[in-house]
Amino acid sequence: METLKGKNVLLTxxxxxxxxxxxxxxxxxxxxxxLTGRNTExxxxxxxxxxxxxxxxxxxxxAQPEAVQALKAQYFSQLPTIDILVNAAGIGIIxxxxxxxxxxxxxxxxxxxxxxxxxxxxxxxxxxxxKKGLIINIPGVLGKTPMAGAAAxxxxxxxxxxxxxxxxxxxxxxxxxxxxxxxxxxxxPFWDTIDLRVQRDKMIQAEEAAKAIWFLCQxxxxxxxxxxxxxxxxxxxx
Length: 238
Ligand SMILES: NC(=O)c1ccc[n+]([C@@H]2O[C@H](COP(=O)([O-])OP(=O)(O)OC[C@H]3O[C@@H](n4cnc5c(N)ncnc54)[C@H](OP(=O)(O)O)[C@@H]3O)[C@@H](O)[C@H]2O)c1
Known about the structure:
The protein has a single domain (8-230), classed as Rossmann fold (3-Layer(aba) Sandwich), CATH 3.40.50. It is of the alpha/beta class. It is 41% helix and 17% strand. The protein has six helices and nine strands, in the order βαβαβαβαβαβββαβ. α1 (17-28) packs across α6 (206-216) and α4 (102-130) packs parallel to α5. The chain has helices at residues 17-28, 40-50, 65-78, 102-130, 151-170, 206-216, and strands at 8-12, 32-37, 57-59, 84-87, 132-137, 175-183, 186-187, 204-205, 227-230. The strands form two sheets. It has a seven-stranded parallel beta sheet, sandwiched between helices. The radius of gyration is 17 Å and the shape is globular. The chain binds NADP nicotinamide-adenine-dinucleotide phosphate (NAP).
C-alpha cells in the first residue's frame, strides 16, 4: 500500500454518511484533505473531527458551475496539487414511474452526473499537467444493475459509470487512474428520505464503505483497481 502522507485529496460529500468517515480515515492516515458538503454545520463538525482547518472546507451546491469554479479557486489557494478526487456527494431518489416527476429526474442527473462532470472539468486539467492522479466515484450497484423504482437514480449512476469509462479511454496515455466503486446498500442518511422497505441493520456500515475508499486511495500507482464491488452479504445483486 502507498502512504497517504503528502497526498492532497479533494473529498466531496464529506458531510455524508460515507464521506464523513472517509474524511476522518484519510486525515488520520496523514492525507491533506479538502472537504466539501452542502450543510455548513455538518461540514464544520467533520472538519473539527478530522483536524481540517476551515480554509480547507467549502459548503456549496456542487451542481452549480459558479460554485465549482469558486471551489477550484479556494482549493488551489490552499493546495498546490490534487492527487486524489473522491466523488462521494450524491442523492437518492427512488420512486416508481407513477410518482417520479420531472423535477426528481432532473435533480438526480444534476447531482449525481452533472456535478461529477463539473468537478472533472475543474480538476482534471491539474491532474493532466501533473500526469498523475486518482479519481474515485461511487456509482453503486445501481450504476450497473437495474432495480424497480430506480429509473432516475440508475439513469444518473449508469451515466456516471459510462462517463467515467469513456474518460478512462481518453486518459490511457497518462498515469491518471479511475476507480468506480459499486457499493450495495450502505446504512447512511442517504436512506432517510427514501420510501422503501429496507433492512438498514443488514446493510454495510458507512465506516466499512469508507474503509474501502481509504484502501483504494492507497493502491500503488503501478496498477489500477478499475472497479470494486462491495455488497451486503445477504443482498448480493451483482
Ligand atoms: N448509502 C448507500 O446505500 C449507497 C449505495 C451505493 C452508492 N451510494 C453513493 O455513495 C455516495 C455517498 O452516499 P452516502 O450514503 O454517504 O449518502 P448521504 O449520507 O446522504 O451523503 C450524501 C452527501 O452528498 C452531499 N450532497 C448531496 N447533494 C449535494 C449538492 N447538491 N451539493 C453538495 N453536496 C451534496 C451531502 O451533503 P449535505 O449532507 O451537506 O447536504 C452529503 O455530504 C452517493 O453518491 C451515493 O449515491 C450510496
